[in-house]
Structures are given as C-alpha cells and as structure tokens.
Amino acid sequence: MVEKRKLASGLTTIQKTFVRSRNGGCMKIVREHYLRSDIPCYSQACNHCITNLKPDAQGNLPLLVLLDLPLKLKNGGQHYVVVDTNVVLQAIDLLENTECFYDVVVPQIVLEEVKNRSFPIYQRLRALVKAADKRFVVFHNEFHEETYITREKDESINDRNDRAVNRCAQWYNEHLAKYSSTKNPIKVILVCNDRNNRKRAIAEGIDARSLEDYIESLPNGDMLRDLIPTENESFEKNAAEIAYPEYYSTSRTMAGIKNGTLYQGVFNTSTYNILEGSVLTPAFKKPLLIVGTKNLNRAFNGDLVIVELLPKDKWREPSTTILEESSIGANDNADDNSQEDLVSDKERRMLALEAVKATIHQGEKKLQPTARVVSITRRSWRFYVGQIASSSVDNETSNASQTCFVILMDKVLPKIRIKTRKAKELLGQRIVVSVDAWPSNSKYPQGHFVRSLGAIETEGAEREALLIEHDVEYRPFSKAVLDCLPKEGENWKVPENLDNGDEQLKKRVDLRDKLVCSIDPPNCQDIDDALHAKPLPNGHYEVGVHIADVTHFVKPNTALDSEGASRGTSVYLVDKRIDMLPMLLGTNLCSLNPYVERFAFSVIWELDENAEIVDVKFMKSIIKSREAFSYEQAQLRIEDGSQNDELTQSIRILLKLSKKLKQKRMDAGALNLSSPEVKVHMDSETSDPGEVEVKKLLETNSLVEEFMLLANISVARKIYDAYPQTAMLRRHAAPPSTNFEALNEILRVRKPGMSISIESSKALADSLDRCVDPNDEYFNTLIRIMSTRCMMAAEYFSSSSYGYPDFRHYGLAVDIYTHFTSPIRRYCDVVAHRQLAGAIGYEMLDSQHRDKHKMELIVRNINKRHRNAQFAGRASIEYYVGQVMKNNESTQEGYVMKSFNNGIVVLVPKFGVEGMIKLEMLGDANSAAYDEEKYELSFTDFKGVSRTVGIFDKVQVAVKSVQDEVSGKRKVQLVLV
C-alpha cells in the first residue's frame, strides 16, 4: 500500500506499507520516501532555479552546469540530452568522446541501474559528471515531487524505471518552456535505444531518438557515425557463418549450479592454441578443458562463464599443437557470412590425431575433464587495440561504409568485425575498437571503431596501445584531484612548532635525531621507505623502518582518494611511470628525500643478536633523512673499510641483521624463485633504447627487502588484532599438487632422479635446491622459473574472506602478511596505513575500511590493477627489447621451455625474452615427428641435417626484431642456429 502525505515542513512523504512473513509470524513494515520541490534543474537558462537556489549542508550553492547556450543540432535547434540506462551501458565510450554529448542529464534512476549492472561503467559515468568540460549532471528524479512515479500494479521494475526516465525528460521540457530565459527554446532530447520505450515516449510528446538517429542529427554526425555501437543484425547479409549453441536461460543455469550439474569459473584461452581454453572450478582438482569452436561458444579470455561437463569418453589431454588466430579463417571475407573454418591441412591432421589419441588413452592420469560453455555470466569486454587487416579492405570502394576485420594485438583473442567509412585511411594505423555483440550465427564478434592512436611503430601510438591493452588509467589527474593537494604545493614543509594546537601533530613522535637513510634503485624520485639502526646498551639493536606518510595528505572520501583507489597502483614502464597519485605527492611532499624533514609512519623494533623481535612500536613520526643511497652506493660504503662513521656503521648493522632474517625465512621454507628480469638502458638525450642487461642483485637489495618484509608482517599482525573482520592483508595460497604434475613428468623423463616436492614450502625449497645440473649452472634458475609458473598468484584480501589458516603466504612462509611499505605507489598500503593509525589510536578509522562489503570492492579492484600493472611492465620491456634488437641481430644461448608437435618455445636468458619457433621456421614440416613421451621434436633442417630438440636442451638461436605481419606488433624473433 502506498500513501502520500504533505508535511508541515513543505516536504512530501510517500509511505510504503507491506507485510513480511517470517517463521510463521507476520510483521508490518512501513518505509518513508521523502520528496521535495526545490531540487534545481542545473540549467543556467532557468530563471526559477537561479532565483531559488539553496545552499547544501556545507553552505555551498549547487553549480548550474548546463549551458544557457548549449550545442545546436543540424537543423539549428539548441538542446539538452537525457540518456537512458542502455545508452550508457552500450555507448559509454561515445559519451566520453570530445566531439559529442554535452549538456547531458543523467536521471538518478539511470545512475543506480548502471551501478547495479556494471560498476566499471558506473565509475566512468561518475567521472563524466565530475568533468567540468563535458557538463553532465545527475538529476535526482527519485526525490523530486514532480518526477517521482509509483510502480503500477503488475508492472515490472524495468517498465517502471523506463517511465521514470520518460517523466524526467518530459519534466525538463515543461520546466524549461516555463522558466527559460533564452529567446530560442532549448529542446530536451531523450536518447533511448529501447524501441518500445521510445514509442511510448514519443506518444507522450517527448522528442525521443535512438542513439543512431541522435548522432545523425548532429552537425558532425558524419564523423561520428563509425563510433556508434553495432546492433546484432548489423552485419547479417547472407546465410549464417556458423551455428553456435544458444546460451542456457538464467533459470536453467541457476538451477544447474545449485544441483551440481553446471559449474562457474573464469575462462582462460590457451596461450598457444586459440581453439582451447580452461576453466578452474572448486569442484575439480584439474582445470576443465574446453576444446573446439562450438564448445568454446563465443567465450572471450577473462569471461566469467558457466560450463557443463562432457561425458568421460570426450575427456582428453591438453593440445600439443600450436594454433594461432592467424591460422584460422586467414582468407575469410569480412562481408561474407558463408565461410568455413580455414585451418591448414597440417594443423587439422594434428588436431584430429590428438582426438584419436585421447580415445586410446582413456583412463590415464594425463587426461583432463572436458566441458562446454553454456552461458556467459559476465563479459570481460573492454577497449581493444589492433589494426585493420588490409586483406579485408576493398580499395575500390569509395567513402561508403564497408565491413572489415580488426586484428587485435592480443594474440589469444579473435579478430573483430567492424563497419567504417574510414577503412582505407585507417590502414597502417593502431586503432582502438570496442566489442558490441557476438551473435550465435556470427563466426566473429562484432564491434565498432573508437579512435586512432597513430601510425603503427610510432613510439607514442605503441606506448598508448600498451596501456589501453592492459587497462591502465593514464590520463592526467583532474582539477578536482589536484585541488586536494596543499595550496602551498612545492613550498610545503613540516610545521616548526609541534605544539601549535593541532591535536594530531602533538601525537607525532619526533625522530629527527635518528640516523635515517634510504637505499633505492639509481635515480629513484619517489622514495617511500627509509631505515635506521643503532646498538642499545643491553646488547640489542634498535631498528626502524620509516614509510612516507601518504595518508596525511590523502584523506578518505576525497577526489584524490577515489582516484588513488581506482588506479590501485603505479605502473612502471621502461621509459615512463604512470603514477597512482599526483607527482607532487610522490616526488615531493611525501618522498623521504634527504636533508629535509618529512612526516612518516614508523615501525621500530628492538631486535636481539639473532634478529628475534623483543619489542615493536608503531608511531606517526617526523624524520630527517641523512642520505639517499643507490643500492650500489650503499654496497660500496659498507665494503669501504675506511668508512667508520655512525651512518655507515648503522648500515652495516642493518646488513648483518638482514642476513639473519633471510636465513630464518629460508629455514622456515621461504621460496627463492626466479624470473628473467632485465633492464633496458635509455639514451639520456634521445630517450632511445640502447642496450639490455640482466639486473644484478646486491646484498643491499636483500637488506632493504628483509626489513620491508619484517615491517609488513608486524603491521599485518597489528591491524588484524584491531580489525579482525576488515584488515587489509595479502595471501599466497599453496599450489595444488596437480599444478606440478606436468613439470615433474618432464623432469622424470628428461632429468631422471630429479623432482619437485610440494608437501610444504620447505619441501619445495629444498627440492629446488637439489635440482642442479653440474654441466649447466643455469639449469637451476630454469627450474625455478618453470616452478614459478606452477604457483598460485598472491592476492590482496579482507580478513573476513578467509579463515586464519588460509591467510598464510606460502612463498614467504609466514602466517600473516600485508603491504604497508609503499603507499606512494600502492593503494593497499594506503588502507593499511589508515588501519594502523586507527589501531594505535592516532585517528578514527573511516567507515569504508570497517565495512566488509566496501573492502571486498577495494581488494577486487586492486588485485585486478596489480595484475594489469605487472603485465604492462613486462609488455613494455618486451617492446623495448624489440626496439634494441632492430639493428642488433645476434646469436645467443637459449633453453627449450616447451615442445609441441609443430614448434618449440625458447627462453633467451640474456634478454629475458621467450619466443616461439614454429615448425616452418625450423625446417621441413613434412619430415617432423613429435615424441610426446620424450618431449622431443625431430625434423630435418633447411640444410638437410636431421635434428632433435627437447625440453631443457641448450640451443643457439639467432635473435632479431621483426614486425608481426598479422598484428603489426614488433616482437623478438628467434631462429634456431
């Protein structure tokens, strides 16, 4: 029952009464919804709202954002735009475009629907509202007397919300017609892609248009036409290309998951075979294997999918055939829907042979359960970067729209079919596209052109492509974010008087007398950690780790905090750093630069001679760093016997204790894993890449690492004690035994007597130490690299998500861990700082870090951002190694990491690169034979010599840089010598 009442205050209240039945009893529930008449329209053309503006609780007047002279349509009429939910969800990139969509009204109900259906798009929409140049406003239609509508009997929520959006557009028209101060009327256009709702709106006298019709009505509509998201039927011309199985209904998938016949998980495409993928689910020890076009059923890498198990006679081993997107449909016509799969005869025979082999080997342990995708719960679609396939462009066609293929830079993704009038001029360009749909009768997904980044191989285009591909936010910080920084900017300094009435300043501990120094990579500008040590009279040592006090400047619920939370982490490329927080914070206000006073968050221990913790204290402090060392400078100072000053002695104490801390970790089972880390040297004048070298680690690297680890562990214990439900922590799960099955089988065959034990991290560490080849000192490193790839990924989590035994960090062999030591570049550390400040009573912890649901959202985002940053950093190194090798072809030592029946994968340690050498680059493809039991590929090379190569073999390879003919991406090409 709904009752409407007018209150004495002038507000209107809607009373909703309903009865809830629980445990046999009835309860009457009454909820009140308040309405008001003074919510402004935010238009500078409205005399009524300008006259009646009221300040908010902080005394600020609302900003009238919508211009009194808005943009004109093709016919000359000025207009505002009201958007519905579907337009926002389908065309957010078009709304963000600088060529259209200004003076836009977003009804509150639309904002709420978008938030419920796609949080990332909701965040982008909120950013548009905050951006002053685009002039987007949120109109609170759900709290306005004249725009709030009640739900009718038997009306669906969606239909009610559609009516609410229509009413909002109608009210704006009526309101502006009555109160507008402009001579020419301002038209309000509802942009709506729901055909039925559009008809209803037009019947009510509203100017409602589809997105396509609205774009066509703009003066620059011809330029924008290519940016309109495609509808499912846009590309249908002839007979269907393929008949993918239709997805199961929501009710069927929910029932299947509940009764255990269907399973949900994230789909991952195989790196080496595009017709194969896997889904990891809790119900099975091994990932479920998805093989073949129909079973993959339009799943994209990263999609959250529902799968159905196939019968046991369809189970099989992972493929031993390399199959890339370029091998499939290479001759497809983008405009012709009658093509069949075009896999080469050789590859088709190999795939068929694998299927036969699976039936022969039924019951063997190698077989994995197989499944098929029956529904997509959540798409991973984002912006993708690629180039238009020249073979799909008709050069005879004029500027009319034509259908063509875009080959993506990510080789595990299918090509995308788009329509564009600019096909010929976009050839050779690195372009951004968005995926709109993948109908069941279309062999390829359908999308639309977003923008061009520039010519392929130009540095700016390739760098921006890399950032977009890994979903890294790289745009400059907004004015709202920068306004959160101290007004003094560069001239800010620690107040001289600590007793100036500021209660928090009084709580800071003055540590300016401590001999603090920092040890970082060369030319480090964002110094977020520093250390000190001194002997105590009782024979123990005082050791302090001091971390930049970022949270003094980054306050919760500000634009600066929201931006940091959204970016999640800084991203380090070869030639550029993409900051999580504005540079002024990272390189000036927070950076623990030498010779200046800085605010810090300090962890101070009393350690005995064996580096055991006797006591630990946490405090907000003021420090003054005495020196900023590079790792090499600190190492030289330690080793220089003539240096015996107090600062040098304190560094020697730190080194001595760090060695004992490391040994204790190793004794407890901490892992020493390897990855091929390289450094690309850039020319200081031209910024061109010069040479590549493998990073050298000094004792001082380990010194800093050990005390940062100790600080992180100590802080984790403290914040978990204080906030057992929401502590920001980091865990590393133990790997399932199945993860190491393949590696152990390879070791059994290729290196008899060697194996990896995973009963515990200690057993794993010890078994890795035993994997030594006396004839090859690099072999142990190779095994550690391969073992790293068998491990689970570490992840951030809120402490309520797991029981305490699952907090364990397997790689570090500790029971609890967090990240606290790099708040300039990681948002996790910002949260840990706030929680630690709350735990020691320095300040009240903000409610968002005490709310389990909000903390879940935070950790989900920072896990994603952390992974993306890692991949972006690696891709940057790969790109610049390719640039270095452009004119520097050389022969290097490599190791076979994987073998297939049509190629091998080789790692080149000197450059830290891994490359695939396909059979056609090795020799005569028809002479090849693959021995799956021995992991060996035999073939006749181009000189007619019979050769056999297998996993772990040391080989000589010619290393050079080439441009991929298909994707346009520069890569290092390896050729067996």
Automatic annotation (TrEMBL):
Coiled coil: none annotated. It comes from Australozyma saopauloensis. One of its GO terms (biological process) is rRNA processing. Gene3D superfamilies: 2.40.50.690, 2.40.50.700, 5'-nuclease, Nucleic acid-binding proteins. It holds the Pfam family OB_Dis3. This is Ribosomal RNA-processing protein 44. GO terms for molecular function: 3'-5'-RNA exonuclease activity; endonuclease activity; RNA binding. CDD domains: PIN_Rrp44-like. Residues 79-199 form the PIN domain. Keywords: Cytoplasm, Endonuclease, Exonuclease, Exosome, Hydrolase, Nuclease, Nucleus, RNA-binding, rRNA processing. Its cofactor is Mg(2+). Belongs to the RNR ribonuclease family. The keyword Repressor does not apply. It is found in: Cytoplasm; Nucleus, Nucleolus. InterPro entries: Dis3_CSD2, NA-bd_OB-fold, PIN-like_dom_sf, PIN_dom, RNase_II/R, RNase_II/R_CS, RNR_Ribonuclease, Rrp44_CSD1. Its main location: cytoplasm.
